[in-house]
Amino acid sequence: MFIEKARLKKPNFLPYIILPILFLVFVLINYVFSAGVDTNAMIQTYITQFGKTPTFVMLMFPLCVGFVFMIVYIQFLQQLGITRATTSRDKIDWKRIFFSFFLWSSFTIVTTVLAYYSEPKEFILNFSWNKFLPFALIALVLVPMQTSFEEYLFRSQIMQGLGILSKTRWVPFVVSSVLFGLMHIANPEVGEMGYFVLIYYIGTGFFLGILTLMDEGLELALGFHAANNLVGALLVTTNWSALQTESVFISKALPSASTDVLIPVFIIFPILLILFSKVYKWNNWKEKLFGKLEISLNNDNNSHF
């Protein structure tokens, strides 16, 4: 079991709260200081001064540093080990990561191309090899680091720590999902669409939490999250989103409550869950999402880190 496997020599909650507390304090401070500030206007100023790709690097850099620190912390300070922080399996299942990545990448590409050909007036063709290629190479490195940091923070550290503390599955499932959504509260999309868009972010948190608990590991969530941010950054951007990049297209469409919030959360994500459940033969949903945990006190001296 994914949460149970994360126990240390004793089921101690403290090693799991250091990084989450530091990060959530950082998010809170950032939100307080950004209150009343037009985040999109600030990003536009950076883009005017430095360009899209340097601005992209500046926005991604803190989370990428967080990812490096996260790996060092898990491996050497917490001594949990990357494998046990990632999966209940004996080793990380890279096939699961790539399957999830290519599934969501394919869906995103196909739907974007269909949208372009059905409503070409809503898009600007922005492609330029001189700008796209350097950006793509940078994004291929930085985006998986950024998304992996968020997955290890919310679906590993917070989920496993709260599971050990509460001895339940539903507490870490709900809390980590809601916190994941609220982390995005300072995004320009919130300023553009209002707090209604948090339904999408929190809904995505629940979707990723279900993937993690039902599949007993982070692999599917890691692949989906990386595909969502990377392919999105490479393929299409807007003038009001958090990541404004040297993408292939620029969308002129105004944000839509149904297209951008309701359809993904209440239609697409459930379909994906059904698909994953068929591929990986998930069962016992109620127990895996809301059941109690039995955290033993035995030492795990033979475990490999």
UniProtKB/TrEMBL annotation:
InterPro entries per the UniProt record, alphabetical: Rce1/LyrA-like_dom
TM region(s), chain numbering: 12-33, 53-76, 97-117, 132-149, 170-187, 193-213, 220-241, 261-280
Alphabetical GO biological process terms: CAAX-box protein maturation
Molecular function terms from GO: endopeptidase activity
Keywords: Membrane, Transmembrane, Transmembrane helix
Domain CAAX prenyl protease 2/Lysostaphin resistance protein A-like stretches: 133-231
Entry protein name: CAAX prenyl protease 2/Lysostaphin resistance protein A-like domain-containing protein
Annotated source species: Flavobacterium croceum DSM 17960
